Amino acid sequence: MRTLQITLFILANVIFIIQGGRDVHQLIWGSEPSILDQFDAEKARARSEKKMEVLVNEYRTVSEEIRALEKGTGWKEAQDIRQEHQDAYQKKEALRSEISERETKKREFRDVWLFTTFGAALIILGTVLYRSRAHWSGLSIVIAGFTIFEYWASPSFFSGADAEFHALLVSKTVLTFIALAALYVVWRLIRICPDAIKD
Fold it and tell me: What pTM was estimated for this model as a whole?
């Protein structure tokens, strides 16, 4: 079991150290806006709005405006209206995209903390089991806990929804370093256990 423990400890270190570097890189340089955003005025304007309620109200207004324009028209007329009122359709799409991105990041932010709490509980449970001589079941539960931590603390590759993305990335960076510290604590606790080095 000693060889397995050392191997897993080394692998976990490598994973969390690399991931910590990626997190810090994403935090500093990964959320830079694209230079192409300046050519999509509606998208840039939607991203600059801080309040979700304002975006939802604007989306509702432009959707009702488009619905009124298309009311009672056939497919051909609707295409003509789309060409004639292209700005309204672009605004609607930019608002829809930004609202969707913010909602996704908000859900992910909630899930990150929920699942890493679950992972931390598994790590604690596994360590307790290991220390009470249930070595294999304890070790497997600890591995499951760190796997959950690793998955949910991995940085997001897609930005958008700047404020939400930044908060999510900060959380993931903090959690990565918490996981690395927890790895050393668990390693120390497991090594203290008498007879832990025997198979």
Answer: 0.66
